[in-house]
């Protein structure tokens, strides 16, 4: 279990929604994952987001269903 990888500089696209990401709270891998490979793809993610009501919620879904977009600041 991860303990909150900061994603506060990202928006997350999940389904038809674009939400403000807060943290990646958990990553699950398939049984038998070869952790000696140079590229390892997770199976499921738990992403803490701020929903359209301004409340925190966790999205739990297959990793391929998430797209993370960096938020551009006025400084960029």
Brief rundown of the structure:
The chain is built from no helices and six strands. With 76 residues, it is mainly β.
List keywords for this structure.
76 residues; mainly beta; six-stranded antiparallel beta sheet; 6 strands
Secondary-structure map:
Layout: E1 5-6, E2 10-14, E3 17-28, E4 44-50, E5 56-62, E6 66-70
Antiparallel strand pairs: 1-3, 2-3, 2-6, 3-4, 4-5
The DSSP helix count reads: 0
Strand content: over 45%
Distance between the termini: 33 Å
Largest sheet: 6 strands, antiparallel
- What's the β-strand tally? 6
Helix proportion range: under 10%
The residue-averaged pLDDT reads 90
Rounded Rg: 14 Å
Structural class designation: mainly beta
Order of helices and strands: EEEEEE
Overall 3D form: globular
Q: What low-confidence regions span 5 or more consecutive residues with pLDDT below 50?
A: none
């Amino acid at each position: 279990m991860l303990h909150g990888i900061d994603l506060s500089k990202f928006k997350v696209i999940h389904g038809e929604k674009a939400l403000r990401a807060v943290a990646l709270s958990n990553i699950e891998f398939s049984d038998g994952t070869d952790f000696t490979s140079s590229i390892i793809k997770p199976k499921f993610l738990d992403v803490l987001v701020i929903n359209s009501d301004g409340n925190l919620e966790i999205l739990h879904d297959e990793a391929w269903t998430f797209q993370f977009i960096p938020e551009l600041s006025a400084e960029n």
